[in-house]
Structure formats: structure tokens, C-alpha cells
Amino acid sequence: MLRSPEEKKRRRPTSIELGERELLISWQDGQSSSYALHDLRLHCPCANCREARGQPHGPQLVGMELPIVTAASVNPTSKAKGFDPVGRYGIKIHWADGHDAGIYTFEMLRDFSAE
Fold it and tell me: How many angstroms separate the CA atoms of 105 and 101, rounded?
């Protein structure tokens, strides 16, 4: 769905707090969302995790160029050490097992909270 620049702005966070088991986001439009870290990790949007879940992103590679599924995507942890902003559109969560390749866009997080 295409959103106007004003709609995108309202869907940006005013605050993000990382707890021991959840990520809390307050949005500019007054909404608040709580995400279980376990659920966020299970839905990591990075290419390796999408591949491991059977949801490939982009064209499939063949032969000796298959994507490597790391131990982090096979045996993930839901403990987070922190997060960093990625531009004005998302965050990157630093998981305790060293995995940090997924960019959780604010649009993805907002849509995820509506499920």
C-alpha cells in the first residue's frame, strides 16, 4: 500500500525502549506497540533468516552459490543487547548471539503490531 509522506511521518516512533523481553514503541500518531523479542527474532527480515524460514528474498542462487545458513539463524536467541537506528525508517537489533543483519523497518513493525 502506498502511503503519503504525512502518513509515513505519523507512523514514525517518538520513543523506542528495549526491555529484557520486549521492544516498546510509542508512535507519533499516539499509538503504542509492544513486541515480544522472541517474535521479532522469529520474523528477522534478513536474507539468511528469510531463507531458513523458506521465504526467499530475491532471486534464488544455485550450485555452489547457495546462501549460507549460519548457526545464528538455525539456533537463534531472543535476547537482545541493544539496537541502532537505520536512517529514518527502521532499527537494527543486536541479538546476544551476534546476529544483527536484519533491518526492522518502522512500516514492518507497525504492520506487525496490527496482526
Answer: 13
For residues 80-101, one letter each, b for 16 or more C-beta atoms within 10 angstroms of the residue's C-beta and e for the rest, the string is beebeeeeeebbebebebebbb
Q: What is the CATH number of the domain that holds 42?
A: 3.30.2020.30
**What is the dihedral sign for C-alpha 77, 78, 83, 85?**
positive
Average pLDDT over residues 109-115: 77
0.90 cut: is pTM over it?
no
Task: Return the SS3 of 83.
Answer: strand
- Residue 76 belongs to domain spanning: 5-56+64-113
In order, the DSSP letters of 9-58 are HHTSEEEEEE-SSEEEEEETTS-EEEEEHHHHHHT--SHHHHHHTT---S
Number of domains observed in the structure of the chain: 1
For residue 26, the one-letter residue type is S
